[in-house]
Write a structure and sequence with these properties.
This protein has 517 residues and is of the alpha/beta class. Among the domains are: 99 residues, Glutamine Phosphoribosylpyrophosphate, subunit 1, domain 1, CATH 3.60.20.10; 201 residues, HUPs (Rossmann fold, 3-Layer(aba) Sandwich), CATH 3.40.50. 47% of the residues lie in helices and 12% in strands. The chain is built from 24 helices and 13 strands. The strands form three sheets. Strands 10-9-8-11-12 form a five-stranded parallel sheet, sandwiched between helices. The chain has a four-stranded antiparallel sheet with strand order 1-2-6-7, with no helix packed on it. β1 and β2 form a beta hairpin. α14 packs across α15. It is globular and about 60 Å long. The two termini are 32 Å apart.
Length: 517
């Protein structure tokens, strides 16, 4: 992982670059003959000429995807350098270009050879990331990815491994029993953080450190567990990247099911079935059959070219039509899935699944997952290392037969069989649960007043959004007739972020390079 700059004093050329997969962020400003770059947006905001104007198109895309897709940010004048790219500044010009992309030859060995190579590559990646002269630990959720990291770390540690785990009182959200089992098997020193609720102050602190709103529902829990981990260690390993490389998300399954579901007549799917499913009340648990059914039907009604990201997109047709005020909506252009097309269109893929994995690695992961990891860990001066994102491992996984990764509806199929004998069977074959917290329930109860007050008093929300519709969403959510968790949480994060940025005074100094542009 890296983000760095090189200045050639003799040629007067500046080169800045970001690692292959976007583990570290890098931002830049280029306007009116002025160029500046930084690892945080806040540093760029110290420049008088950098305006804090919100980009409406970015705001629209954020509410759909829950992050602002590269290379844009929420600020009109600030861009992100894309993963695997470099930017060169010479007298009179600024140009960006890729130095790496995910393009590999298909694996030619047998399934058993692939399983052996998978474990070997991941273990080598873990071993390399254990090099440290400071205390080191690992995040353990009890899921497959983090458990595999713990198992491989234990092979190379000469002292008990410190593990850090989040737990919730609601058993449909908590993975603690599974994490405790893994900790016992590998003799770790477990540290558990039980989250019973989230305070407004914790919400505001977390969003402040993000620089721009990003509403991955595991962001606040990750912020809190990083804080706890930093009390004991300076470096932590984490399992991010496993679900992208090895096909672990429900959206991959939904996309496969939809190939059969979409055979049904469109009127039946979008009017009859959806009307029936919409009447089912939301359940308080995290997943469950009803909640999954409602999410599947909702995603299947979105434009087909959105692919598997239809089940990770939250600006449904009703929201798209009613959420924004007319003046704001008129300034928002284009297809909601255009950012995905920009990343993946024109590239050759063996299969639909290969394209979906590519989109996850090049689009969703750097903008959401890795942004969360970097910002939340750096808020506490904690270094997080991600073995699943060693580029050798990423390229190897991309070379595998797609059916080895998603077999029927079994996600991470080859990963599960490769770790037989290393991890217990119940860990190997359990469904993905995820790191998120019960925000949908808390927005109905202890955070309801905070949500309502923040949205109705926010200048940004009042200027661009239909408050009558926003308050209707709140009422429907509280009544459990609908689950509007994602759009309401997104709006709350947007309002809190805008308030913080609007009232902040930045005192950090920064340098910029003048050119003759």
């Amino acid at each position: 992982m890296f983000a760095f700059a090189l200045w050639d004093r003799r040629k007067k050329v500046l080169l800045i670059t970001r690692d292959r997969l976007g583990i570290k962020p890098l931002y830049y400003y280029h306007r009116r003959g002025r160029f500046a770059f930084a690892s945080e947006i806040k540093a760029l905001l110290t420049l008088d000429e950098v305006e804090r104007s919100v980009d409406l198109q970015s705001m629209y895309e954020y509410l759909g995807f829950e992050f602002v897709p590269d290379p844009k940010t929420m600020f009109r004048d600030i861009c992100k350098l894309e993963p695997g790219h470099y930017l060169k500044v010479t007298d009179g010009s600024v140009e960006t270009a890729p130095f790496w992309d995910l393009a590999v030859e298909p694996f030619k060995g047998s399934r058993s050879e692939a399983e052996e190579e998978l474990v070997s590559l991941l273990e080598d990646s873990v071993r390399k990331r254990l090099m440290s002269d400071v205390p080191l630990g690992v995040f353990l959720s009890g899921g497959l990815d983090s458990s595999a990291i713990v198992a491989l770390m234990a092979r190379h540690m000469n002292q008990p491994l410190r593990t850090f785990t989040i737990a919730y009182k609601d058993p449909t959200y908590s993975e603690l029993p599974h994490a405790e089992k893994v900790a016992r098997i590998f003799g770790t020193k477990p540290n558990v953080l039980v989250i019973e609720g989230i305070s407004p102050e914790e919400i505001e602190n977390t969003i402040w450190h993000l620089d721009e709103p990003m509403t991955d529902l595991s962001t606040i829990p990750f912020y809190l567990i990083c804080k706890k981990a930093r009390e004991q260690v300076i470096v932590c390993l984490s399992g991010e990247g496993g679900d992208e490389n090895l096909v672990g998300y429900d959206r991959f399954k939904a996309s496969k099911i939809d190939r059969f579901y979409s055979i049904l007549p469109g009127v039946l799917r979008t009017e009859v079935i959806r009307a029936i499913v919409d009447r089912l009340p939301d359940r308080p648990q995290k997943k469950g059959a009803v909640n999954l059914l409602k999410r599947f039907v909702e995603g299947s009604c979105l434009p087909a070219h959105g692919g598997h990201m239809r089940w990770q997109y939250f600006m449904t047709g009703d929201h798209d039509r009613s959420l924004f005020l007319p003046a704001a909506r008129a300034m928002i252009s284009g297809d909601p899935f255009a950012p995905i097309a920009r990343v993946a269109d024109g590239k050759a893929f063996r299969s639909t699944l290969d394209r979906e994995v590519y989109v996850d690695l090049r689009f969703t992961m750097p903008g959401s997952v890795l942004m969360k990891v970097d910002k939340m860990s750096m808020a506490h001066s904690l270094e997080v290392r991600v073995p699943f994102l060693d580029h050798r491992f990423v390229e190897f996984c991309a070379s595998l037969d797609p059916s080895w990764k998603l077999s029927g509806l079994t996600t991470k199929a080859i990963f599960r069989t490769a770790f037989k004998g290393i991890l217990p069977e119940d860990i190997l074959w359990r469904e993905k649960q995820g790191y998120s917290f019960p925000s949908k329930n808390w927005l109905r109860d202890e955070l309801h007043d905070y949500l309502t007050d923040r949205l109705n008093s926010s200048p940004l929300i009042r200027e661009h959004f239909n408050l009558d519709y926003v308050n209707l969403l709140i009422r429907q959510h509280v009544s459990r007739s609908h689950n509007h968790n994602h759009v309401l949480w997104g709006l709350l994060n947007l309002a809190v972020w805008h308030h913080g940025i609007s009232h902040a005074s930045f005192g950090v100094s920064t340098q910029s390079i003048r050119s003759s542009m």
